Amino acid sequence: MNNGNDFASHIDKDNMLELLLNFPVQCKEAFAKTLKMDLQDLEHVCFDHILFCGIGGSAIGLDLVDSYVKHKIKIPTYL
Questions:
Q1: For 44, which of 8, 19, 50, 59 is 20 to 30 Å away at the CA?
Q2: 59 Cβ contact list (under 8 Å, min separation 6)
Q3: Taking 60 as the threshold, does the pLDDT of residue 15 lie above it?
């Protein structure tokens, strides 16, 4: 995202600002995809741990999920 700001585009070579600005849209798209998942086969499975994995920027989304679910479920979560 340049928006006439050559200085920012010179520093932000990987376009991280644009990714961060689009993060809410990405979250909505990811949530919409989860609603389409068929998880009926897991209905009677008992989980005793949940492990979230991510590297770098992908860990941001995992932090959000972890902070949301860790107070709603009785099993430990790990990042």
A1: 59
A2: 79
A3: yes
